[in-house]
Design goal:
Length: 130
């Protein structure tokens, strides 16, 4: 797959994800929000993985919708008037940052292992054998 991120740029993008995770957790703590809610809802975006049952293309769309900062930041902005959405937006940003820090990027329709941060899992192993 051409256009995948490698080297120092990949490391930088993963560090950005870590920074988002830390910033979201610090903001969550500063706002004195309930950490039990954080624990309960942190993994909710993984429901998007069920899209892969409908194929790689649908799975990629589903995953990318749940793992793009667009929805999370929109939730934060709306959260200025609806506090529950502020909580949700921070948890959502933390989740995305966590995934990006681990190297799980936005997906390409070729399959789950093809991400904007490079290939992962068995796809990375096949790529390195070439």
């Amino acid at each position: 797959m051409s256009g995948e991120t490698t080297g120092a740029v990949r490391v930088l993008l993963r560090l950005e994800g870590l920074c988002v995770l830390i910033a979201a957790c610090l903001a969550y703590a500063k706002l004195s929000l309930d950490w039990s809610n954080f624990a309960i809802y942190f993994l909710v975006p993984y429901i998007s993985l069920f899209g892969y049952f409908a194929g790689a293309k649908v799975g990629a769309i589903s995953y990318n919708t749940a793992h793009s900062y667009l929805g999370a930041v929109a939730s934060l902005v709306i959260g200025f008037t609806v506090p529950a959405l502020q909580c949700a937006g921070l948890i959502w940003c933390a989740h995305i940052g966590f995934d990006r820090a681990l190297g799980y990027g936005l997906k390409y329709p070729e399959g789950f292992g093809y991400t904007h941060l490079g290939r992962i899992g068995r796809f990375a192993a096949k790529h390195s054998e070439k």
